[in-house]
Amino acid sequence: xxxxxxxxxxxxxxxxxxxxxxxxxxxxxxxxxxxxxxxxxxxxxxxxxxxxxxxxxxxxxxxxxxxxxxxxxxxxxxxxxxxxxxxxxxxxxxxxxxxxxxxxxxxxxxxxxxxxxxxxxxxxxxxxxxxxxxxxxxxxxxxxxxxxxxxxxxxxxxxxxxxxxxxxxxxxxxxxxxxxxxxxxxxxxxxxxxxxxxxxxxxxxxxxxxxxxxxxxxxxxxxxxxxxxxxxxxxxxxxxxxxxxxxxxxxxxxxxxxxxxxxxxxxxxxxxxxxxxxxxxxxxxxxxxxxxxxxxxxxxxxxxxxxxxxxxxxxxxxxxxxxxxxxxxxxxxxxx
Length: 336
Ligand code: UT7
Prior knowledge:
By secondary structure, the chain is α+β, with helices and mostly antiparallel strands.
């Protein structure tokens, strides 16, 4: 399958235009306490720890028992606010990226706003696994226009509720969790590249429920359908091309990038990118072994873990790279 993205690519380079953007001043993440191992899954599915570890790189994932996306996003937001030494009433904008919110309205962001006791403008973004980076770019627009001083951007997913737990090719690769960042006015958001190709033949998640008496159900709804191999090809092409392009377009060498925080979909995708781009694996923030693929929460969780594990120096260049349902891609360059 050939992918054509050129018509839909949106580029913004605030450094070139000298427009004020934001700095990330706090990160937080939350993983529900229940840990499910590959051996646990092998009790009910025709799979094995060996297959999942070798083909995907996942050993365990966190699965929510009773927490919804808003509950997990709220916990991640509290940690990010604490690191940022920011009170909820200082936040002007809350954007949540999620495809697994419990309600159409109130949104995940709106529910978190209420939990925080905040009055911030709040709304959700759905761009599947790329959603957190679409949300960051949307927040950047508010900073550019000078309408907000501080913002919370959250990625939160309860993927377990939209999986077919009898389908071994999808249910073993996902997990639940949330990540959040606090942003304040600054010049740290350098550039982003977003793209969308609205086809449904590679990944599709039909919504459930239609109350119309005239509706005729034709397929299973509310679960993830994914052509794994096509998604894999799409992912490896995207991650290598987009990281290379964002570096070139912003006149930096790949060597200048301190860390890459990739979407955690499959360790083989990250290893492939490392090899093709000649960037050592140590520069990639990786937690897929413990968390699996948490869709829009994947990058902010990995960023929070990176931020807490390493002494990130001010000015360090970090690239985020996402791909997934939509089909969507998003690559973001920031200066810490
Ligand atoms: O976040 C959205 C983005 N998502 C991604 O980026 C996912 C990208 N795709 C992938 O990571 C991989 O394609 C998968 C992990 C989904 C699948 O791995 P694969 O190496 O592409 O496997 P495959 O689909 O080619 O299947 C190979 C074999 C098949 O058996 P046969 O037909 O060769 O007998 C599958 O039925 O592996 C079988 N298989 C499994 N076996 C044991 C598929 N899933 C499993 C499983 N356990 N869980």
